[in-house]
Amino acid sequence: RVEGRAHVLKVSQKLEYAMRAMIELADATHEGVLVPAREIAARQQIPLRFLEQQLGALSRSGLVESFRGGGGGCRLARPPEEISVAEIADAIEGQIFPMFCLEPSDHTCFQDSQCGLQGFWADVARAVQAVFAETTVADLSARHRSMTPGLFLVSPEQLLTRP
After folding, report:
1. CA neighbor of 78 nearest in space, from 90, 61, 91
2. CA-wise closest residue to 64 among 45, 77, 50
3. Residue 46, by phi and psi: left (phi above 0), alpha (psi -120 to 50) or beta?
4. How many angstroms separate the CA atoms of 56 and 37, rounded?
């Protein structure tokens, strides 16, 4: 920590929005309805144009189906139990690296392939990838439903200390 600020590994806003959209679609899957992008954008407070780009990437990756016209909208292409966060991340970002030195095409570090930290960052990348691979959209949706607004508030500190 520097002067009371925490520094974090960041997930892009594109991936965050895509995950939020997938949660909305998972919830609608149980009802068997199509969800218009405008509705997802309003519920999740995501700019519609930006959301449409993420939905397009998810559709091209076979995770979401889109239908145009009156009564159109989106739905998950597979059951939420069968879609992992890793698939969403791959559709939106490609492989995510916690440090630039792990990017296979980036050799700008003066200690490239000669640094003990690279192995550590590779461990971090594998751990993140494992969590992404084992977490499904159904898991995200269940977590989201358990945090229904108005029932109770949970601080980020409490979330980080939960088992």
Report:
1. 61
2. 77
3. beta
4. 11
Strand partners, 76: 64
Please give the chain's pLDDT, 163 residues, in tens.
445 544 446 678 899 999 999 999 998 876 678 999 999 999 999 999 999 999 999 999 999 999 887 778 899 999 999 999 999 999 998 766 555 545 555 555 555 566 667 677 778 878 888 999 999 999 999 888 777 665 555 556 656 666 5
| Burial (0-12, 13-18, 19+ Cβ within 10 Å), 41 | buried
Cross-strand pairs, 66: 74
Position 77, amino acid:
A
pTM: 0.76
